[in-house]
Amino acid sequence: MRRLVPAPLAPADRDSAAEWARATLPPRQTAIRFRWRYRDERVSYAGRGMTRIAPPDSLRFDYAGPLGLGAGAAVVLGDTVVWADPKTNFRSLVPAIPMLWASLGMVRPPAAEAVVYGRTEGPRQLWRFVHGADTLDYVATAGAPGRLEAEWRRGGSVVARSRTEYDTHAMPASARIVFPEGPARFDLTVVAVDTLAVITPALWRSRR
Predict the structure, then answer these.
(1) pLDDT (tens digit per residue) in 57-81
(2) pTM score, two decimals?
(3) CA nearest neighbour of 99 among 3, 187, 191
(4) Which of 207, 159, 204, 169 minimizes the C-alpha distance to 190?
(5) Which of 17, 171, 175, 190 could pair with 103 in a Cys bridge, judged by C-beta atoms 3.0 to 4.6 Å apart?
(6) What angle is formed at CA 165 by the lines to CA 89 and CA 10, rounded to 5 degrees?
(7) Which residues, at least 6 apart from 89, have a Cβ–Cβ distance to it below 8 Å?
(8) Are 166 and 147 in contact (CB under 8 A)?
(9) Domains of the chain
């Protein structure tokens, strides 16, 4: 697979990268309702779901299949899954947490130990965060609507790649995550965005 950013990037300031990443977050608690479809060589699933986001680093991801079958939920803090119920189902549906954030149009800031590279090309901002064996590349294209592309490599191999289209209000409208080694694909289409969502504390603790 051809790399998202094939050319080398120059060293960049980590604080600038973190500021750019924070700007991709919603300014307040937000709920995003969506339709989803997952497929690989063996199975194909589809359904609906909702993500609740509490900036700067928390989200709850709820999903269900047709007629409510195969329902589950998970809470993610940064790049860590705090809990998932059922755990196996969530890991199968969303095997790459950095790509989940990117599919929702948001970027996690580089880790404190990450080496940061970047460049601006006209309406595009290119960033690379390297942390150990993991490399995250981002290409953000300004416009109406805009676009965010991301690629996660581990040890030189592409783990996942995502492409998110924004609507005219700079909120995610649709996304696709591709897992080349599977191969597998996860598609997400946004149905509604609630920027006045209230997330009760209990929702972070348990699925029910």
Answers:
(1) 999 999 998 766 678 999 999 989 9
(2) 0.92
(3) 187
(4) 169
(5) 175
(6) 100
(7) 70, 72
(8) yes
(9) 10-38+45-191 (2.50.20.10)
